[in-house]
Amino acid sequence: MVSIGVLAIVTPLSLAALLQAGESGSASRAETRAPLIVENCMAELNLARQGISEYLPTLQAGEKFGDGDVLCLAFGGDGKLLGKVDPGAYESGTKEVASQDAVFLAKLSGVEDESRKDFPLMLTVKVSIERPAVAPRDSRRAMDFYTKLP
Question: What is residue 18's predicted lDDT score, i.e. its pLDDT?
């Protein structure tokens, strides 16, 4: 009887510890892949400004983006760029892009930096890396990264 009581207390605690360890591992993977994902996003933005991006529409230098229409790219678990995600799939979550499992979503936006009036126009670019890709937008965890783009 005592051993059943001990098991009743220990089992939920051990399951909670296992779940927490899994979440910590997932967060660590996301933080490890984040620099590569951000670098890939910036490369795609540069290609879009040249009009040759495979995944993003043509963007003009100094023109804000991602304010109305969602610009989102999907990445695999290794940080490899899989392709564009349409706004509906971004909202509801997506399991696969280009027949590969999507793990991370990167939402891109750029707004004018108005803090430095006497300097040339710059955009503040936000890359929001969200996980898991399959979850609805409100259920994902996100890490935001900011940079400037002329």
Answer: 56
In total, the chain counts a number of residues equal to 150
Tell me the pLDDT of the chain averaged across its residues. 87
In 3D space, the residue among 96, 59, 91 whose CA is nearest the CA of residue 74 turns out to be 96
* Cβ(72)–Cβ(117) below 8 Å: no
For 37, the token pair is 């994902």
Tokens of 125: 């670019």
- C-alpha 49/C-alpha 116 separation (Å) is 23
Tokens for 75? Answer: 């990445």
DSSP H/E element including 3: helix 2-50
First to last CA, the chain: 71
pLDDT band at 113 (very low <50, low <70, confident <90, very high): confident
DSSP classification of residue 137: G
pTM for the structure as a whole: 0.81
